Amino acid sequence: MKVVIIGSGPAGIVVxxxxxxxxxxxxxxxxxxxxxIVVRCSEPYAISGDTEVDKIIxxxxxxxxxxxxxxxxxxxxxxxxxxxKSGNEFEFDYLVFATGAKPFIPPIEGAExxxxxxxxxxxxxxxxxxxxxxxxxxVIVGGxxxxxxxxxxxxxxxxVTIIELLPKIFYTSYDEEFCSEVEKLLKEKGxxxxxxxxxxxxxxxxxxxxxxxxxxEIETDIVLLFTGIRPEDELAKKMGIETGKxxxxxxxxxxxxxxxxxxxxxxxxxxxIVTGKPTPSGLVSTAISQAKVAAMNICGVEAEFPGVTNxxxxxxxxxxxxxxxxxxxxAESEGIKVKVGTFEGLTKxxxxxxxxxxxxxxxxxxxxxxxxxxxxxxxxFVAPFIDFLSFAISKKITCNELKNLQYSAHPELTPLPxxxxxxxxxxxIE
Amino acid sequence: MKVVIIGSGPAGIVVxxxxxxxxxxxxxxxxxxxxxIVVRCSEPYAISGDTEVDKIIxxxxxxxxxxxxxxxxxxxxxxxxxxxKSGNEFEFDYLVFATGAKPFIPPIEGAExxxxxxxxxxxxxxxxxxxxxxxxxxVIVGGxxxxxxxxxxxxxxxxVTIIELLPKIFYTSYDEEFCSEVEKLLKEKGxxxxxxxxxxxxxxxxxxxxxxxxxxEIETDIVLLFTGIRPEDELAKKMGIETGKxxxxxxxxxxxxxxxxxxxxxxxxxxxIVTGKPTPSGLVSTAISQAKVAAMNICGVEAEFPGVTNxxxxxxxxxxxxxxxxxxxxAESEGIKVKVGTFEGLTKxxxxxxxxxxxxxxxxxxxxxxxxxxxxxxxxFVAPFIDFLSFAISKKITCNELKNLQYSAHPELTPLPxxxxxxxxxxxIE
Lengths: 430, 430
Description:
The first copy, chain A, has 430 residues and is an alpha/beta fold. The first copy, chain A, has a 5-stranded parallel sheet with strand order 5-2-1-9-22, with helices on one face. Chain A has a 5-stranded parallel sheet with strand order 11-18-12-13-14, with helices on one face. Chain A is built from 12 helices and 29 strands. The first copy, chain A, folds into 3 domains: 2-102 and 229-298, FAD/NAD(P)-binding domain; 116-225, FAD/NAD(P)-binding domain; 312-427, FAD/NAD(P)-binding domain, CATH 3.50.50. The relative contact order of chain A is 0.11. Chains A and B meet through α1, α8, β25, β26 and α10 of A and α1, α8, β25, β26 and α10 of B.
């Protein structure tokens, strides 16, 4: 069995691993056009110098050590075989699109100037890092996770401005009360926040000098365009594969409309587990889960990917935020009648030193099944709560079932036992 | 409706709150023999000076603010009324035992000497704290949570010795590979660890001077007997209420064998949700959950307590440990054929600064339903994972269902996304 995987990111890596594990005799070829395997979510930390670019690059052995071949080349045409830019040709029994995504560059005049950057590859991260050595002022266009995380890592050492088109940062990821907490913190830390504002022009000669935001000119040494990603689905389209607004369409087996052709990761149009409607995901954990399902089905082990809960977390200075499923405004815009339970408290018992604020919001549908949750706390407290909620959402767990949770309690490690964050939020639903 | 609650600890408080909420017109009387409402799990931090004894005492308003009466008195007899030491008498329609537990004092010669302490009340904590001002050497008898936590808080400032009868500290709570990690850390921090050893005698004149452990004499200024707790069930027994080895027996409504008499918290013999067999709990979260169920049933709202998962967590220096359900040796001693999945990794991406070790062990029964889990990590990472496992155990979630978890990932906040702690442990089960 010959399996050709296009893309050497997380989805490509996982497909190669699972296929080689289940069918050790298969021939697996991963064709990657990027120079390196990079841990993309660590890029802000490499740019800020909190880690090194070389440390976020993984060796090719990540793929080759399982017996798969890694070809550094770009696929240009797919027919009965896969043809690459350098003239190679690969036969396949199964083809997997793990082509990922590319940065979306908004049509702004001046976006081509020097020191205007987008971020995807390790080389992108390296260029931004290098440019920082001569910079004092940084404009980040886009108040999403990567932009705000990087802003929080650079604040204090640089004059940082975030420009966001939508009314608040994190606007599509969190409900307003959570966005506001983050905005308050960013301002306290000296970050210049321009929300609900559009970048009209980027000015400069060779290098960028300023951006024009609704008539106002903001001088800067660097512009970072963190304005979202788009699926890499052109090759698939050319091949006659059905795509949607958010990427390649697949069934629950991660198979496309073509026999023996699968897709996984950022290039895929995911489906919400709550509504069954198309939705973007763009999360590495989604890519990995979809890749496992694709690989298993290729190997004849039936598996289904049920749709995404999109659990994600972020760290902004010393607060951590997470969410899974729907936020309130998103659920309401889908026409779902929601019930909302909240918790506001402390991350530790009030008997202890330095308890920190904690905030939870749970969204239920009319049947009182949990369909979403948002959490703000500190440290590594948030991630496992979000995983728990993600599980609960995918299993249609009800408010009453969550209310009966038996939970742990400890003065230094949890809120007071009378106020478990999830149980307390559930107890607000009558 | 008149409800008399014996005991002003967490179970008593929660019964009073829920009854007053559901039946605001009811008369609720809480009779507490302790001087104060104390946050017991914070006592080690008050003893060590990491917080103050006064800060771990809660005001009486915790009970009276909901409209319940708080009577500081000791119940001495129960017939058609409840009679107290000071001669008061209370009628009741419903009676709730929330009498808690008392320290178990092993029959050791010299246990009555000065500076030999047990710990339950705020006054106990205060006495120990005061005695520390003149102490250099401390012997802690009992390598359970409270003893080891307090040892970790006092190490460095005092010569601390832990003496444990069983082969390892935490022996009944964790499997050996977890116990060993903690023992290694305690030794590194200079704590003197004597495991598998019995205290034969405590010597001294008026004050304690030393303990004799299998012939060896260990000099000390203070001895702390942290040798477990026993349910306060004598009053119940006298009244003809059925008790077991671990306390007052109840049905799933938290009702005893007598009509209109309920029980909740440490005085109750809990039942394992996995085996349905009697088991101790001794956790504040169990007390709170049982109290809610008791109060609801008293108010005519049917509710069931399904049995305990016993989720618990602890912090020893800078590692945190948690567990829920069965550990392997406990499951095996119950005759359960187990499957075990493990994860060993890091709490952060390896691209980041200062990742810390993380260790997970999941226990499944033959049907591959999760019946237990143990986790070692750092910070406030462990508690929500344990809550998640507790939920999964109570819902008989299978390995395959957990394997399909969609989870969050972040360089600073989770292990690398290829290695989710729970999913990875599940993937070891074939």
